[in-house]
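To close the section, here is one more complete example, presented without commentary so you can practise reading it yourself. The ligand is NAP.
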Amino acid sequence: MTKIALITGANKGIGFEIARLLAEQGVTAIIGARDEERGRAAGERLGLPHVRIDVTDEAVVAAAAKWVGQEYGRLDILVNNAGIAGSLDATVPSATPARALREIYETNVFGVVTVTNAMLPLLRASEAGRIVNMSSELGSLTLAMDRSTPYWDANYITYNSSKSALNMVTVSYAKELIDTPIKVNAANPGYCATDLNAHTGFRTAEQGAAIAVRLATLGADGPTGAYLEDDGDIPW
Ligand SMILES: NC(=O)c1ccc[n+]([C@@H]2O[C@H](COP(=O)([O-])OP(=O)(O)OC[C@H]3O[C@@H](n4cnc5c(N)ncnc54)[C@H](OP(=O)(O)O)[C@@H]3O)[C@@H](O)[C@H]2O)c1
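Output:
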């Protein structure tokens, strides 16, 4: 049976590549995009369906879930990929207003919870649901405190703490769903050249997509509640 996947923020960047690579494996990968036209254009490029989904808008997310249910009756894979970085100017935490965190969290944390809750009934209707949350190595508390790594200096309280929170969100859902076939994992794509970082990354979006695709297609013996990159676990 053809698997059905929804990837949020799939009109460009890593999400687009996740959709493309899943489609190569025969998955019906639905392009989630907050902008109808950008979603349609990406869907047409890949020959894939698209749905409008702004992860910060509960009504729009609910409408997207309703559409997926009506169209496919279930969801096998949810990739919570949509994310924003905001300004990564080296603003010290003490000079960063709480509203800057709130803005990032709306998309990177609360958006994931909104989408996951809306899609869970459809994932439960799958024989083997998979949820992949696009985290970042910048969310690792262990790496952040390691002076020998570049993460020591990358002290972005807004983005980094949103991804640390997302890691705990991942673990929380994995625990709730531990006795179901649904697996929930966090992926680190590495530093990829996309619009998110003005294309300063040294990996391609396709390389970044690979770990998400792996976690989206895990077998029954795969992990849940894990934080993974290409080379294996990364420290929380
Ligand atoms: N690039 C990296 O080096 C890197 C490293 C670690 C983790 N990540 C994570 O990987 C994910 C993808 O990032 P990327 O590098 O591919 O960034 P990107 O090229 O900027 O793409 C981000 C995508 O998210 C969408 N998006 C933003 N806010 C949204 C919202 N409220 N609702 C729905 N979609 C929304 C964007 O839509 P629009 O086109 O409409 O703006 C776009 O499709 C993010 O979660 C990011 O934090 C990236």
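Once you have examined the tokens, check your reading against these statements. The mean pLDDT is 97. The beta strands are 4-7, 28-33, 50-52, 77-80, 130-134, 183-187, 227-229, 232-233.
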